[in-house]
Design goal:
alpha+beta; 2 helices
Length: 91
């Protein structure tokens, strides 16, 4: 079955007539792409703060988590370019 790895708990109604639900995923889900990594050496680069501020100042529609993911995606791409140009000899 398609959703065998999930479950839901329906909590009692609060001040409204809606019942909140907690959805649980029991199996590990596939993570798309590589995780966000941070290297301490990046702080020594004069351009680092500019990359950080440029990503942070980008606007995106959606809820706060979507906006944060969007900022991290922009920052990741920018830092990858900086890493290739400034730290290509580091392993």
């Amino acid at each position: 079955m398609l959703w065998d790895h999930t479950g839901a708990i329906f909590l009692p109604e609060g001040i409204s007539n809606h019942s909140p639900a907690v959805i649980k995923f029991y199996e590990a889900t596939h993570i798309k792409g590589a995780l966000f990594g941070y290297y301490e050496m990046w702080r020594s680069c004069p351009e680092f703060e500019t990359h950080l501020l440029n990503a942070w100042n980008k606007t995106a529609d959606g809820d706060i988590i979507f906006q944060l993911v969007n900022i991290l995606q922009v920052l990741k791409g920018s830092l990858k370019k900086m890493h290739r140009s400034q730290f290509s000899n580091a392993h």
